[in-house]
Design a protein that fits this description.
Length: 391
């Protein structure tokens, strides 16, 4: 079955009693035991809940893995994965990285005597150079948040296999519709399901999929022990989101490409980071390992004063954190998603005060371009620019 069909079938026909087409929301914390020593398979919802099972099975099918586990957020999912690391272990991870992942490593994981090396995984030689005796895992975001660096998954996974490392891929930006890292040999895939999988900016959730059962059950054990579960209502919303994922991703991408091409030609813009542009260094790599380029892009502006101007004046595009929903959102990574990364580190990786990130929605692309065009024209006429020039 093709993924478009699998997506639509997510969670279908789970209720034999009524024939309900969608998985019902089992708003239950506990389940009656038929007899002493017997169970329906469900005892207590921290351990398992039928709506959650439906979502977990769906995401395992879509990512081509053995076990899916649904968490209360992307960070809860990433935290459970980091519990696989023990005292003395070493982790190699992408340098340009979601700020929350960086925070949990710096403030929590490192306290447990786990060593962390941030590497530009785009250059796979750097991964190789940093593998040590105690290296246990390689964690990759591709494309990265927010600079859209692309890592060659074939090469990175080959290095990990050679050194017996677990490969973990944060697939949030791509979704299983566009990229399936487990098929390429990764061990674990993680999602902030709050993004494209939910798709409507109305749910927070996280998903982990494991290629092998044993590792997946370990993650599930941690989840049950900690209790970082996704509630049945949220599971239902994610199942619903999955059904339209293919259509949404196609439209996100169509709009993102149009906007990226248009932005590249604007005199107020310094650089555009979108892997669907032939000028992007990761263009050929992403074409090799994914079905598309996605709906995320970032761009740097030539004048810092344009940043607040855009954030305050854009009308169709909304100034808000997060990504992957139907509405186009603009984010200022240095002050929002990546604020926990020290300024010198941010500047070194390129998350400067001139960088903006765009999560391109599914509106009409021309309306989005028009919004930018009008704001750029206003800016050029405004006092703000005058002040910037005379400073
Ligand atoms: N991974 C990536 C790439 C993200 O962008 C985010 C959030 O923005 C997360 C993980 C964390 O997910 P959540 O916000 O659902 O905890």
């Amino acid at each position: 079955m093709r993924i478009e069909t699998e997506l639509v079938r997510s969670g279908m026909k789970r209720d034999a009693a009524t024939g309900s087409l969608t998985t019902p929301i089992y708003q239950a914390s506990t389940f009656e035991h038929p007899r002493l020593g017997e169970s329906t398979g469900y005892d207590y919802s921290r351990t398992a809940n039928p709506t959650r099972t439906s979502l977990e099975e769906a995401i395992a099918v879509l990512e081509k893995g053995e076990v899916g586990v649904a968490f209360s957020s992307g960070m809860a999912a990433i935290s459970a994965i980091f519990l696989l690391l023990e005292k003395g272990d070493h982790l190699i991870i992408s340098k340009d990285l979601y700020g929350g992942t960086y925070r949990i490593l710096e403030d929590i994981v490192k306290k447990n005597d786990v060593e962390v090396t941030y590497v530009n995984t785009e250059n796979t030689e750097e991964i190789k150079r940093n593998v040590k005796e105690n290296t246990r895992a390689l964690f990759i975001e591709t494309p990265t948040n927010p600079l859209m660096h692309v890592t060659d998954l074939h090469e990175a996974i080959a290095i990990a296999k050679e050194h017996d490392l677990l490969t973990i891929v944060d697939n949030t930006f791509m979704s299983p519709y566009l990229q399936q890292p487990l098929v390429l040999g990764a061990d674990l895939v993680v999602h902030s399901a709050s993004k494209y999988i939910g798709g409507h900016n109305d749910v927070i959730g996280g998903l982990v999929v494991s290629r092998c059962r044993e590792l997946g059950e370990k993650i599930r054990f941690y989840q049950n022990a900690i209790g970082a579960i996704l509630g049945p209502q949220e599971c239902f919303l994610l199942l619903r989101g999955l059904k339209t994922l293919a259509l949404r991703m196609d439209r996100h991408e169509e709009n993102a490409l149009k906007i990226a091409q248009w932005l590249e030609e604007q005199d107020l813009i310094d650089k555009v980071f979108y892997p669907g542009l032939e000028s992007h260094p990761g263009y050929n790599v992403i074409k090799k390992q994914a079905k598309g380029f996605g709906g995320m892009l970032s761009f740097s502006v030539k004048e810092e004063a344009l940043v607040p101007f855009l954030l305050e004046h854009l009308q169709v595009v909304t100034f808000a954190e997060s990504l992957g929903g139907v509405e186009t959102l603009i984010t200022f990574p240095a002050r929002q998603t990546h604020a926990d990364i020290p300024e010198d580190v941010r500047n070194e990786i390129g998350v400067t005060n001139c960088l903006l990130r765009l999560s391109v929605g599914i509106e009409h692309g021309e309306d989005l371009i028009q919004d930018f065009k009008e704001r750029f024209d206003e800016y050029k006429r405004s006092e703000v620019q005058h002040k910037a020039y005379t400073r």
